[in-house]
């Protein structure tokens, strides 16, 4: 079928009661271009939920008028929605055409029965969100939409599925299964040609054969093609092939895929193309920070690129199916994927969440996820759920088996896991467990991670999770690293994955991953900071019993990402890179001096409040704490060339010093020889505004964006972290400013304003192209000379 973007020409408004509208109480529509996050436009409220970043819920409606030519009469016409949050209902010319309760599934609407040919038609979409999630969801039509037009005899959408069942040295057998529909009243036969091309466009395999489809039926035709000397897909070498399927003169379809093998066992762990690999994993939510939930292809690609640059080789989409745009990026960049189904089954976690629709819809939503993922070589694991309370019950285990076998029936080429929180699995018996002689559980512990680990190793957990884990290929464990070692003896056939772990325990966890063959990786919570679950990773000080999980309004972000919501790496990211063995040079971070000497009582998701800065005006002569991260024998700290000490190194070595402006240097030594150094310099009083785009040229279509980083620096380029001020941005020409924000975790500022205060000296502007030509950006800030830049917009 011919696929064209359906993103333009939409109108939007909060949903209006039709009876109120009859009495004159109406709201006007306004023009929007998809993807669009309706929730991000709402006013946050102090009486709202921290889980959703204090954004209110609501109901929204979209409409679009589009002309359907008379010559399309008799064609099959489908409108495809990649994601509408949530409880979407779709009407075409006033008639109900379909719905989808789950906010993360791609779903088609067969439109042709309701269309009027030779005239304008209207499609209307309603969406609603209210107390239905533990994180910021966004709302509305937040992913791409497509118009699909095809003949009555056609390749069905998503009907080309490619597998590589036999790969060996110098050759690969590729099986292409093509599903064809015949809506005519006659038997139809057509030549089906399957062509495989490499990344350079060279034909490497081709097969042609007739295929016959009975009237009103569908059939699947399979071609087995032989590819010589294949270039295998892996995270280090993400080679992709293109498969073109042609059905006579009736239809064509093109998909990309990769050739690779997967192996899994408790001795060698996970192997890709025969090579052992440990998953350096990042859990991520679906929002794109300052864009909210709006899913642009470039936003997803940039996120994958930056996560890989930070040392990750795998992403777990938490806790819903990944977008097609991000899957495409993972294929191209070389990032392994754990794609997840649901955060709840029949036991709800929020008053109006998907559990209300799960019994009726879960099979269709699994089918949608697998159909989306099947041709993506980056996908290696499916997760059937996250922290499902039912997991520890017999009925829950039976339901889990239904989900697992449904996935396996649809795709037997990947492995299966379930992200089990062992504490939730025995929650109903937790009070009784506390009364038993279970070490650690009776003690009031300072670290929730210790408590969760103590529960994880209990006999009750072992018994209650035995069936749930036995049905999986990989036992997914959330915050249960205490089981890694013992399970090797107790369950010798069990393969384990840390599906969710505390960022503060990465050194401990990674040592276990490297030690045990049956433990295949670790996924930190989280790789990228996100909106909602506000403040779970924020630094807190004072008495332990005053530590809080949720931060008060106006907190906005969770504060626990290796990268903040703008994509800037935080100190924990460099610490992790050193733990992974990917960075030799040390890294310097400095704790905020205003809290010096106060007891730190952050949650296990909270890193220290250190930042990479030696600019602390007003604290001259005050005590200050310096953190040096290094995999070395010794580290030395120098201030203006004067040694502040050379000491045996830990992964994180802490120095106490007195703040003096100047140059701070950390030097790492191994066997007495310097292996690297890191420098921080005090910014001078002169403040300049600097603007830098991620790319000088972008494309006009395909979800491309320009990211412009705005930084306050001194004349030498040192970031001025203590000189924050509002920055104004103006955009003209062939583009528009769609978001302006910072990583400030607690603010009432909006992302859709033209003015935003920097945070730690940085802000981020995001520009969408509106046509080919040139985009001109002008940014200004108080007591700074304005800066201008030009970004070229090319045709695709």
TrEMBL record:
Residues 621-675 form the DUF4982 domain. Residues 689-787 form the Glycoside hydrolase family domain. Residues 164-260 form the Glycoside hydrolase family 2 immunoglobulin-like beta-sandwich domain. It comes from the Bacteria. GO terms for biological process: carbohydrate metabolic process. Keywords: Glycosidase, Hydrolase. Residues 270-421 form the Glycoside hydrolase family 2 catalytic domain. One of its GO terms (molecular function) is hydrolase activity, hydrolyzing O-glycosyl compounds. The keyword Hydrolase applies. Belongs to the glycosyl hydrolase 2 family. This is Glycoside hydrolase family 2 protein. It comes from Nonomuraea zeae.
